[in-house]
Amino acid sequence: MKTKYLDLIEQTFDFPQENFEVIENELWWNNIKLMDIIEQYGTPLKITYLPSIGRQIQKAKRMFNVAMAKVDYEGEYHYAYCTKSNHFSFVIEEALKHDIHIETSSAFDLNIIERLEEDGKVDKNMFIICNGFKRPQYVENISQMINNGFTNIIPVIDNKSELEGYKLDKGKKIGLGIRIASEEEPMFEFYTSRLGIRYNDVIPFYNIYVKNHPNFELKMLHFFINTGIRDSAYYWSELHKCVKLYTELKKIVPTLTMLNIGGGFPVKNTMAFDYDYEYMAEEIVAQIKSICEQQGVPEPDIFTEFGSYTVGQSGAVLYSILNQKQQNDREMWNMIDSSFMTTLPDIWAMNQRFILMSINHWDYEYQRVFLGGLTCDSNDYYNAEAHANAIFLPKMEHDDPLYIGFFHTGAYQESLGGYGGIQHCLIPAPKHILISEDEEGEYSTRLFAKEQSYKSMLKILGY
What we know:
The chain is an alpha/beta fold and about 475 residues long. The protein has two domains: about 5-40 and about 315-460, Lyase, Ornithine Decarboxylase, Chain A, domain 1 (Beta Barrel), CATH 2.40.37; about 50-305, Alanine racemase (TIM Barrel). It is about 30% helix and about 25% strand. It is built from 14 helices and 21 strands. The chain has helices spanning about 5-10, 35-40, 50-70, 90-95, 105-120, 135-145, 200-210, 235-250, 275-295, 310, 340-345, 345-350, 415, 455-460, and strands at about 20-25, 25-30, 30-35, 45-50, 75-80, 100-105, 130, 155, 175-180, 215-220, 260, 300-305, 315-325, 330-335, 355-360, 365-370, 380, 390-395, 405, 430-435, 445-450. Strands 4, 13, 14, 15, 16, 17, 18, 19, 20 and 21 form a ten-stranded mixed beta sheet that branches. Strands 5-6-7-8-9-10-11-12 form an eight-stranded parallel barrel, surrounded by five helices.
């Protein structure tokens, strides 16, 4: 009878999988023995595996360029990184090594880009796509950077009054984008996105406010589907509608050459993950080309703004099980040495699921458990996987620690969790390490942040 944890995983999934394998009953991730990392740094521990970022970027570039070659697409593909997914310097600097552009969503994003330009890590000719409903400081920063020589900043207009706020030097001529307010899926609470300009208002807005503007010329049409790029009737309908609007605009706006389809490639969040990235890239490119040919306009350059897809797979969080508690007849609780609410806030905020696996004891029998965090909040738990309604982990043995890992956690968790600030129930933020690889494939680690101290918390609290 097969009752070991390894048996369970092999029976449930096609395992080993890309970046995951088991050697001598311990989990290896990206060819790294995680027990060695735990022995060196302890738990709880956050990890960023930097090589994953470049691999994801190159994978997307390859898929879209192959898709374009298959249908003889005339436009070009441009990869932009959506900074709000992860603003840390080590992430953005790693991404910039792979010939990308940047998409921003706030005034401080532009301060980051200015610092990177001062350090010689970006130049003033890269595309900077400025999205979002803009406060005055955001508009001021955009204007200042344009006046200081950034030639490819593209403010994407999100509301009709935004254009009035830009103060550009006389003679400056810069590209402009307009965001379409896409319709949401029928089950969404609201029918239309709060972002962008209403579909029927885009062409009138151009004719009235942009056509004869002394500083701007329309270069980009932008849209984003909130539920992501999926093979669904809803997605293809919205894509078709937005491309059709692009062709209508192109007929009256010769300067319009760019179509920005936003982000939305998913991150693998289960070992049963099934998503055909190549098919989706090929179908998107083919449909854009087909609609443009039908309407008699040249194909646009395609921009994407992948954020979670870029950084999600680079992240992992490792915990140890502090203790096991039998609650009622059927509830076996494994208590982790941290909090889900502070280290992986999407778990309780939106019921997000990540890849969860044991780090050690793959030769032990498995049992069904619930995972509990350290805070005194009833929502600080994890009780189901994306592919099943239960969690199974190796049985606990006395004086034999059990370690678990959550993987592909690299997007949003630090910013949503209030990195460096006050954590719920004053649970300290864990250590954070970075893993790099040299040309021979040998990895090295460095400590980015120590575990949060009580002194830093007291200072924030005013003590």
